[in-house]
């Protein structure tokens, strides 16, 4: 994988920027330029997350993989900014990354430094699935332009590698080996535990407006039927169906919230609280699979689940 990560590097100028952009109506131009402006912010946040994962990685090969991911995300951010300029034909307004990203970024980066590795990886994996299966492909379809398509093809290739490692890390954090690794670490002080709890609370509080501004609202505009977003959350739920996913406290928390939301009696009473605590739009807390599909997912290996998610990029239409 490390060799592949290095061989599949590419440059911004591999994209032909000389082609004129497709003509857009003024409102559509505003939407598209804001989408790419926000996308640049998302990619920079992802890069900061991979910096932290590289710092924590003990295996030199895994550290090297994460370091290539940092380079990927920085390049994606620059390409997104260039796409924003490319489609900003009329200069209708000034565009800035949504303020909710800046607020979430501060608390998220603090939380992933204060909490165990599996918490950060859960958010990274979920974000990559939404980005790869839903947002990037829907933006590409909405813009319908050769320059955008060329950029998205290259970015999607990188994101497929990221998802493969995300699933590998999910499996690692659900393993007995990781539990043994945690047990061997020095016990956290009371001060460290309080700081971690406070960081988690602040991250969760800011998660919902961040997700709404950066993912849910844009997807409502470019995929109003929500097919691709539901597909992305279907694969998150399949990961959560694995018994091992509940081995860590954060995994159990997510599972309890999900079960509470979907409980036939308790759901109508506490579902809104559960969705707020998780930070998700209630539409994506609902069960996406039948009981038979959940049972099937629980029996699949993480490699099979990953392959299923990557294939979904072509099925989410």
Structural account:
- The chain has a single domain, classed as Ribonucleotide Reductase, subunit A.
- The mean pLDDT is 91.
- It starts with a helix and ends with a helix.
- The radius of gyration is 20 Å and the shape is globular.
- It contains 13 helices and no strands.
- It has helices spanning 2-7, 26-56, 60-87, 99-114, 117-143, 146-173, 176-184, 190-222, 227-241, 249-262, 267-278, 291-299, 302-315.
- Helix 2 (26-56) packs antiparallel against helix 3 (60-87) and helix 2 (26-56) packs parallel to helix 4.
- With 317 residues, it is an all-alpha fold.
Structural class: mainly alpha
What global shape is seen? globular
One letter per element, helices H and strands E, the order comes to: HHHHHHHHHHHHH
How many structural units, i.e. domains?
Answer: 1
Q: CATH architecture, please?
A: Orthogonal Bundle
Query: CATH topology, which one?
Result: Ribonucleotide Reductase, subunit A
């Amino acid at each position: 994988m490390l060799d592949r990560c290095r061989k599949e590097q590419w440059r911004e100028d591999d994209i032909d920027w000389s082609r004129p952009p497709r003509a857009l109506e003024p409102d559509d131009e505003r939407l598209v330029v804001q989408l790419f402006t926000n996308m640049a912010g998302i990619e920079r946040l992802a890069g900061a997350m991979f910096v932290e994962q590289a710092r924590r990685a003990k295996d030199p090969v895994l550290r090297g993989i994460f370091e290539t991911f940092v380079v990927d995300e920085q390049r994606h951010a620059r390409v997104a900014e260039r796409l924003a300029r490319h489609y900003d034909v009329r200069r209708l307004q000034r565009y800035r990354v949504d303020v909710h990203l800046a607020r979430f970024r501060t608390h998220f980066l603090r939380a992933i430094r204060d909490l165990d590795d599996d918490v950060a990886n859960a958010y990274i994996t979920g974000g990559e699935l939404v980005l790869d299966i839903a947002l990037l492909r829907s933006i590409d379809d909405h813009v319908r332009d050769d320059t955008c398509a060329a950029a998205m093809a290259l970015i999607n290739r990188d994101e497929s590698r990221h998802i493969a490692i995300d699933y590998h890390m999910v499996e690692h954090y659900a393993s007995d080996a990781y539990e043994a690794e945690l047990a061997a670490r020095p016990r956290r002080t009371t001060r460290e535990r309080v700081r971690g709890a406070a960081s988690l609370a602040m991250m969760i509080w800011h998660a919902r407006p961040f997700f709404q501004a950066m993912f849910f609202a844009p997807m409502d505009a470019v995929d109003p039927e929500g097919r691709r977003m539901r597909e992305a959350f279907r694969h998150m739920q399949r990961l959560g169906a694995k018994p091992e996913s509940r081995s860590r406290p954060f995994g159990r928390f997510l599972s309890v919230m999900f079960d509470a939301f979907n409980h036939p009696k308790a759901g109508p009473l506490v579902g809104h609280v559960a969705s707020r605590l998780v930070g998700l739009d209630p539409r994506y807390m609902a069960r996406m699979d039948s009981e038979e599909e959940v049972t099937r997912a629980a029996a699949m290996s993480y490699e099979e689940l990953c392959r299923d998610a990557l294939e979904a990029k072509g099925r989410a239409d």
